[in-house]
Automatic annotation (TrEMBL):
Record field: transmembrane: none
Enzyme Commission code: 1.2.1.-
Alphabetized UniProt keyword annotations: Oxidoreductase
InterPro entries for the chain: Ald_DH/histidinol_DH, Ald_DH_C, Ald_DH_CS_CYS, Ald_DH_CS_GLU, Ald_DH_N, Aldehyde_DH_dom, Aldehyde_DH_Superfamily, Succ_semiAld_DH
Domain of life: Bacteria
Name of the protein described by the UniProt record: Succinate-semialdehyde dehydrogenase
Keyword Oxidoreductase: yes
Species assigned in the record: Spirosoma arboris
Native organism taxonomy: Bacteria, Pseudomonadati, Bacteroidota, Cytophagia, Cytophagales
Length: 481
């Protein structure tokens, strides 16, 4: 087993570190080396049902804490996460492969949600509504929703947890975290820090499992879970949504994307290249808001492709723990095969490789630039989730907006232009939940994160994020003389 003081090899339920009742386990693999990092419990449906019971039992006492008391717990957790930043980052890099500099950045980003919602806990204001008759007083309050289940992805093993459990805990709701089987160790590490912060038993629970179908079904259909928050593929999001319909559970879904990146002829090309590099190749192209399709105006196409290709060719690929590495491995064989399939399809339909284009040893793949992209290619229609940047030409603003919107997805989008009128016009025309205008890095705890169409339901982060983890209750006082 790898050496790291934060590694925990048991699930965390009701303030206790536990194994699966069956005794079953699964291995956690380092995608850079193929080595086993640790072995953790493979929890089943009965184990998860027990976690739900204890979380539900802990709910009344926890929701009765004052907002300030809950905020203080969150602040302690926030401080502990930052105090352990280096070890958390190394652990994250070992299990998901992202380079250490990005892991360090994720610790800061993930902790920012805990800090933000610690502050928001004290600002869940209600309303007094002007009464319809003189003898009534109408009041609206916000209350804890109940037990919250968070199903999180492997590409951001820390931040996708904190973005969900931060508002839940701030609102007075116990949580059950189901991390992915690829990256459970970061989830268990921050569970350990939550324990040290002093959250009462049953309020914070983490169950590790590879039995995604049966555990997901229990979290969806158990009526003691009042809210489900999921980040992952659209296909799984639709399945979970249908399962939650059995008891009309409230849901937040942050699903797949197909982000366009548009460079107009009046853009700052150097800034556009920098933005494309940041958005496309972060975490090896394995983020839901990664650029997936680049549309560049014909007048600046050659200049942009040349500068982008030079920047991509300079990227250093290697083990994320090597501080010289700028890109790590893909997460697994399935992810690697998807990249190869998208590339092969594009090449068979006329695309050209300008830089990269080859598989490396293990799960590593060369960062790649493709040109002559057409709408019939798979890579123009689906997320590649890897380090391949496909570039297409355009000449007309309305044409490129149509191409950008021609997808069932609507998470993130990006464009570069110096024309303020165009900026407003295009930003409003793009059918996406988030738009980066002359900016490739849009994620922050202070802004709402989420998509439209088949990219999901709800928003996380920002002042809006609290509302998705609370119930609005109307109080009507009569007989007021």
């Amino acid at each position: 087993m790898a050496q790291n003081s934060l590694i925990r090899t048991q699930s965390y339920v009701n303030g206790t570190w536990v194994n699966a009742a069956s005794g079953e386990t699964f291995d956690v693999i380092d995608p850079a080396t193929g080595a086993v990092i640790a072995t953790v419990p493979d929890m089943g449906q009965a184990d998860v049902r027990e976690a739900i019971e204890v979380a539900n039992a802990a709910w009344p006492a926890y929701r009765d804490l004052t907002a300030k008391e809950r905020a203080n717990l969150l602040r302690k957790w926030f401080s502990l996460i930052l105090e352990n930043k280096e070890e958390l980052a190394r652990l994250m890099t070992m299990e998901c492969g992202k380079v250490l500099s990005e892991s360090l950045g994720e610790v800061d980003y993930g902790a920012s949600f805990i800090e933000w919602f610690a502050e928001e806990a004290k600002r869940t204001y209600g309303d007094v509504i002007p009464a319809n008759t003189k003898d009534k007083r109408l009041v609206v309050i916000k209350q804890s929703i109940g037990v919250v289940a968070a199903i999180t992805p492997w590409n951001f093993p820390l931040a996708m947890i904190t973005r969900k459990v931060g508002p839940a805990l701030a609102a007075g709701s116990p949580v059950i975290v189901k991390p992915p089987s690829e990256t459970p160790l970061t989830a268990l590490a921050i569970s350990h820090l939550a324990e040290k912060a002093g959250f009462p038993p049953g309020v914070y629970n983490t169950v590790t499992t590879s039995k995604n179908a049966e555990v997901g079904l229990e979290l969806c259909e158990n009526n003691k879970v009042r809210k489900l928050s999921f980040t992952g593929s659209t296909a799984i999001g639709k399945l979970l949504m249908s399962q939650c319909a059995s008891n009309l559970k409230k849901i937040s879904l942050e699903l797949g994307g197909n982000a366009p990146f548009i460079v107009f002829d009046d853009a700052d090309i150097n800034a556009a290249v920098k933005g494309a590099m940041a958005s496309k190749f972060r975490n090896n192209g394995q983020t839901c808001v990664c650029v997936n399709r680049l549309y560049v105006h014909d007048k600046v196409y050659d200049e942009f492709v040349s500068k982008l290709s030079d920047a991509v060719a300079a990227l250093r690929v290697g083990n994320g723990l090597d501080t010289n590495s700028q890109m790590g491995p893909l997460i697994n064989e399935k992810g690697l095969n998807k990249v190869k399939h998208h590339l092969d399809d594009a090449l068979s339909k006329g695309a050209k490789v300008i830089v990269g284009g080859h598989e490396m040893e293990g799960l590593f793949f060369q960062p790649t630039v493709l040109t002559d992209i057409t709408p019939d290619m798979i890579i123009a229609r689906e997320e590649v989730f890897g380090p391949v940047a496909p570039v297409a030409r355009f000449t007309d603003e309305q044409e490129v907006i149509r191409l950008a919107n021609n997808t069932p997805y609507g998470l993130a989008s990006y464009f570069y232009s110096k024309d303020i009128s165009r900026c407003w016009r295009v930003a409003e025309a793009l059918d996406y939940g988030m738009v980066g205008i002359n900016e490739g890095m849009i994620s922050t705890e202070v802004a709402p994160f989420g998509g439209v169409k088949e990219s999901g339901v709800g928003r996380e982060g920002s002042k809006y994020g609290m509302d998705y983890f609370m119930e609005i209750k109307y109080l009507c006082f009569g007989g007021i003389n």
